[in-house]
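Tokens in:
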């Protein structure tokens, strides 16, 4: 409960504890106002739906890809962003 301060009281005895009170009702109310105003539209998740396994015609595959174009582009951008972040983190 007291963390590392209890184990080593002399190391950080002058450190003050900052307790923050968080009101979830007020936060939910402000989120609801934002949702009603239409400002949270970018937070909507657009999942990529997989096709059932088995044989598919080329027409089925093309139509499935074109129907999910936005979700696929978002997933590809996310993959590129993650790859770039990993590259900068590990120096690739």
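Residues out:
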């Amino acid at each position: 409960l007291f963390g590392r301060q209890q184990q080593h009281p002399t190391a950080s005895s002058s450190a003050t504890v900052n307790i923050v009170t968080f009101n979830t009702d007020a936060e939910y109310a402000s989120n609801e106002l934002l949702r009603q105003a239409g400002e949270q539209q970018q937070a909507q998740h657009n999942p990529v739906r997989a096709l059932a396994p088995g044989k598919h015609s080329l027409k089925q595959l093309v139509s499935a890809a074109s129907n999910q174009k936005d979700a696929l582009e978002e997933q590809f951008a996310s993959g590129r962003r993650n790859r770039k972040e990993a590259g900068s983190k590990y120096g690739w």
